[in-house]
Design brief:
It is a single chain. By secondary structure, the chain is an alpha+beta fold. It has 2 domains: 37-113, no CATH class; 115-179, Alpha-Beta Complex (Type Iii Antifreeze Protein Isoform Hplc 12), CATH 3.90.1210.10. 25% of the residues lie in helices and 27% in strands. Strands 1, 2, 3, 4 and 6 form a 5-stranded antiparallel β-sheet that branches. A 3-stranded antiparallel β-sheet has the order 5-7-8, with no helix packed on it. A hairpin with a 2-residue loop joins β3 (93-101) and β4 (104-121). α1 (6-16) crosses α2. It starts with 5 loop residues before the first helix and ends in a 19-residue tail after the last strand. 15% of the residues are buried. Involved in the assembly process of the P-ring formation. It may associate with FlgF on the rod constituting a structure essential for the P-ring assembly or may act as a modulator protein for the P-ring assembly. Keywords: Bacterial flagellum biogenesis, Cell projection, Cilium, Flagellum, Periplasm, Signal. It holds the Pfam family ChapFlgA. Residues 116-178 form the SAF domain. This is Flagella basal body P-ring formation protein FlgA.
């Protein structure tokens, strides 16, 4: 029997079916590894964003869910990107987050769902009515579905006057009230000025 070359042995195995099966298995494993590597990177980034927003919303929301809306091929290339937001950005809803990997900057589109307490009217409140503990209450719900500038701290409403009619369970916004006037029209007041030149 003549000596078989390596190529002949490989061809013999392939004809027997064993080599073809091994080759198919190796290719399948390689394809699965390639397909799932962006998913594991996205999963790691999601947990980093979850931690980032949980820290940003500490004291406001006790339940935060984050989902990345950016395409996987546009995610940052490093394992631990430096995450930041501009100071005037909202902290929930659809937001943009800057992820830095060295000199590489990528903006990520992220959806943040936050659950916490917000202030609602406990009963009908007429325009010009005083907001006090008896006619407002805290309600728990999704903060990202509320109108902008909804009041989250009931202490912001101390001595506040409603600027419009409010219905029960209506979230109270910062634009719907003002602080009570400290001085009334016609009231006598003493003005004291001190300092150089007075």
């Amino acid at each position: 029997m003549p000596l078989m070359t390596i190529a002949d042995r490989y061809n013999l195995r392939c004809r027997n079916g064993w080599g073809a099966k091994m080759l198919a298995i190796k290719r399948s494993v390689a394809i699965i590894a390639i397909l799932f590597s962006p998913l594991s990177a996205a999963s790691n980034l999601t947990s980093q964003l979850q931690t980032f927003f949980s820290a940003q919303l500490a004291g406001v929301s006790d339940e935060v869910r984050v989902s990345i809306r950016t395409a996987p091929n546009l995610l940052p290339p490093c394992e631990q990107p430096l995450l930041s937001m501009s100071n005037n950005s909202r902290l929930w809803g659809n937001v943009n987050v800057l992820a830095r990997c060295g000199n590489d900057k990528r903006y990520l589109q992220v959806n943040v769902q936050a659950t916490g307490n917000y202030v609602v009217a406990a009963m009908p409140i007429a325009r010009g009515g005083k907001l006090e503990a008896g006619n407002v209450k805290l309600k728990r719900g999704r903060l990202d579905t509320l109108p902008p500038r909804t009041v989250l701290d009931i202490n912001q409403l101390v001595d506040a006057i409603s600027l419009r009619d409010l219905s029960p369970d209506q979230p109270i916004q910062l634009t719907q009230f003002r602080q009570a006037w400290r001085v009334k029209a016609g009231q006598r007041v003493n003005v004291i000025a001190s300092g150089d030149g007075f």
